Amino acid sequence: MSFSTSTTEAVPTNLAPQGVDLEQVCQQFGTPLYLYDADVIIRQIEQLRSAFTYPKVKFKYAAKALTNISVLKLIRQQGIDLDVVSIEEAHIGLKVGFSAQQIMYTPSGVPFTEIDEAIALGVQMNVDSLPLLRYIGKQYGNSVPCCIRLNPDIRAGGHDKISVGHNESKFGIALSQLDLVVDVVEQYGIVINGLHIHTGSDIKDPEVFVEGAKRLYAAAQYFSNLQYIDFGSGFKVAYKEGDIATDIPPLAQIMEESFREFCQEYGRELEMWFEPGKYIVSDSGYLLTKVTVVKENPGINFVHVDTGLNHLLRPMMYDAYHEIVNITNSVGPLQPYQVVGYICETDTIAENRMLPQVRSGDVLAIKNAGAYGFSMASNYNSRLRPAEVLVYQGEVKLIRQRETLDDILQNQIEISL
User: Fold this and answer.
1) Cα angle vertex 175, ends 266, 125, to 5°?
2) What Cα–Cα distance (Å) separates residue 271 from each residue in 18, 215, 217, 274?
3) CATH topology of 17-36+282-409 equal to that of 106-276?
4) Which helix (H) or strand (E) element contains residue 193?
C-alpha cells in the first residue's frame, strides 16, 4: 500500500501517565478502554484552589462530565462538593459519601415526582422554571430553601449546543420574569438562599463571567436571605498545542474583586460557588483504541478503529477536536488520515489528521477524553461500552468492567409470538 507522505516529521511522544505503559495496559484490559490519570484530576483541583483566595469559595464538581464512582470518590477526598442534574446522579453522589448538604441539584423540566424525591433526600434545590417554583411553593411553602437559576441572556461558549445562557435556551428563568419570581416567592414565603447562572462551556473571555455576575448582582437586591451566588462554570481547557484555555488566575482575581464589592453593597459576606466539570476531568482522560483496518481510497486514507461515536460522541455532536497520538508508532513522516469509528453511521473522530504511519494493530490514544466521554456513551449498534481504569499512585486500577452481551440483553423480555 502506498501513502502520500509529508516532509514534516512527528515529534516523539511518550504518553505514560504516572510512568504507565499504555500499550501494556491495553494488553491487560483490552480495547477500547477509558483511562484516567488521578494525578491530573488532583492537579486541576489544586490549580483552582491556588487561583481563588476568597475565604468562602466553594467548588462543586459537575458530575455529568464523568460519574464513575471511583472518580467521584477521588474528587470528594479532595474537598470538592457536587453538582448533579438528575436524581440518579444525586443517589450516586450520596452512595460515594457526599452529604446531602454538599449536593446541588439542578433539574431541567423533570417530572415533579423526581423533585419530591430530591427534596426527601435533602439536597439543595436549584429551580430553573416558574412552574417548578410554584409547585415547590404550593407543596412545601417555606420549608425547602431554593436557589433560583436565572438565564442571563448572554450567548457564549465554544459551540451553539453548549451555549446555554442566551434567551432562546431552555435553561433558567429569564431575567425579564424576575418580577414573577418575586411574586411567587412572596405568595408562598419561599426561602431563596442562592442565585445561579451558567452561560455555557468553553468560555475563554473573563468578561463573559463578569457580565453574568453583574446581572446576578442586580437580581440579588430582590432577595434578602441569600447565602451564596453560584456562577456555574464553563472554564475552557486546551485541546491541542496553541489552543487557548480559560486563564484561571486572572479570572479568579477579577471575579473576587467584583464579588467583594457586591457583598459590601449587599451587607453580608456570601459564599461564592463555581461548578467546574470538564476543567477537572477532561485532561485526565484517554480513550485507547486499536486500529482495525487502514483503507486507502483515492485521495484519502481511512483509519478504522474499534470504537466510535457510541463511546466518544463529542466529535460528531459538537465538532470537538481531540488530539490523537499513535502510541505504537509515534515517530516518522506525518501523513494525513481520516480516523473513523466502527459504527454504521457517519462516524468521524478526526478529519485530515497528520499522524506518523498508522498500521493495522496500532494503538491510538485519543486525548482529553475524561469529560463527556464515557458519560455520553451508548450501546448504539448493540455495541458494548468499554472498561474504565484509573491510574492512582502509579497503579492501574479497574474501575468499571467491560460490558458483555448479557449486559445488553439482561433487561429485555422475549415474548411468545
Assistant:
1) 75
2) 36, 17, 13, 10
3) no
4) strand 192-196
Phi and psi angles of residue 396, each rounded to the nearest 5 degrees, phi first: -95, 120
Domain ranges of the chain: 17-36+282-409, 106-276
| Contact criterion met (CB below 8 Å) for 366 and 280 | no
Whether 344 is a known active-site residue: answer yes
Distance CA 361, CA 66 (A): 29
190-224 pLDDT per residue, tens: 999 999 997 766 666 677 788 889 989 999 999 99
CATH architecture of structural domain 17-36+282-409:
Beta Barrel (2.40)
Homologous superfamily of 106-276: Alanine racemase (3.20.20.10)
pLDDT in tens, 330-376: 998 999 999 999 999 999 999 999 999 999 999 999 999 999 999 99
Instruction: For residue 221, give the C-alpha cell.
Output: 437586591
Contact 367, 324 (CB under 8 A): yes
How many helices (H) and strands (E) are present in the chain, helices listed first? Answer: 12, 18
C-beta separation of 279 from 237 below 8 A: yes
Q: What Rg, from alpha-carbon coordinates, does the chain have?
A: 23
Give the C-alpha distances (Å, rounded to integers) separating 375 from 69, 103, 229, 314. Answer: 12, 19, 28, 11
pTM above 0.70, yes or no: yes
The per-residue pLDDT for range 234-243, each reduced to its tens digit, is 888 888 888 8
Which residues have a Cβ under 8 Å from the Cβ of 204 and sit 6 or more positions away? 236, 244, 245, 246
Q: Which of 26, 146, 147, 344 is catalytic?
A: 344
The per-residue b/e assignment along 200-209, b for 16 or more CB within 10 angstroms, e otherwise, is bbbbbebebb
Q: 399: Cβ–Cβ under 8 A, 6 or more apart, which residues?
A: 36, 68, 69, 70, 71, 388, 389, 390
Amino acid at the residue 3: F
